[in-house]
Amino acid sequence: MKEFKEQKRIDLSYIKWCGWQKTALHFIGKPLNFKEIYSAQFQKKFLPLFKIKKLFILKQVHSNRIIELDLNKSFSSKVIRIGEGDGIYISDLTLVESGFGIGIFTADCLPIFIKKENKLIALHCGWRGLASGIIENALDILSPSLENIEVVIGPAICWKCYPVGREVYESVTGLS
């Protein structure tokens, strides 16, 4: 099993995971403010740190919707919102050019990355998405066989720091 390694650059702390060939996962903590992701200052400072030329993101809405990134399209912006949902699907990683990045933003939600052969799905998993089947949707996309699936679950807030109520428990587990 590959390990996470803590990294520091300028005033930014992050965890790096390099378990997949040509694919590194960076989990960025404070003090980054993602509300300013479209600003020129953010793009000038942040994107070069990770050698990102194009960053693909979603309008995350706590759903079970997964959107396929169309790598045949031409994009002129540096930060591209590809739609509304909580998962980004890349059907062929061999088409991904150097400098492409995917942004999944989490606080109390889980970042989950699922890879099978040359396919990758990046998920933003809040309790509403989990309860409505976002993981099942991701596995359906990668089926018919679930052999050779690799999963990385990124850092998340713990239950001691973020207790949940009965309604969340019942929604996620289906138990009352």
CATH class: Alpha Beta
Named CATH architecture: 4-Layer Sandwich
- Assembly type: single chain
Overall 3D geometry?
Answer: globular
Number of DSSP strand runs: 11
Portion in beta strands: 35-45%
Question: What is the succession of H and E elements?
Answer: EEEHEEEEEEEHHEH
Unreliable stretches, pLDDT < 50, 5 or more residues? none
Strand order of the largest sheet: 5-7-10-9-11
CATH topology: CNF1/YfiH-like putative cysteine hydrolases
* Number of self-contained structural domains: 1
Structural features, described:
- This protein has 176 residues and is an alpha/beta fold.
- Strand 1 and strand 2 form a beta hairpin.
- It has a single domain, classed as 4-Layer Sandwich (CNF1/YfiH-like putative cysteine hydrolases), CATH 3.60.140.10.
- The N and C termini lie far apart (36 Å).
- A 5-stranded mixed β-sheet has the order 5-7-10-9-11.
- It contains 4 helices and 11 strands.
- The protein has helices spanning 40-49, 127-131, 134-142, 166-173, and strands at 4-9, 12-20, 23-28, 54-59, 66-68, 79-84, 87-90, 100-102, 110-116, 119-125, 149-153.
Question: How would you summarize what this structure contains?
Answer:
The protein is α/β, with parallel strands linked by helices. The chain contains four helices and eleven strands, in the order βββαβββββββααβα.
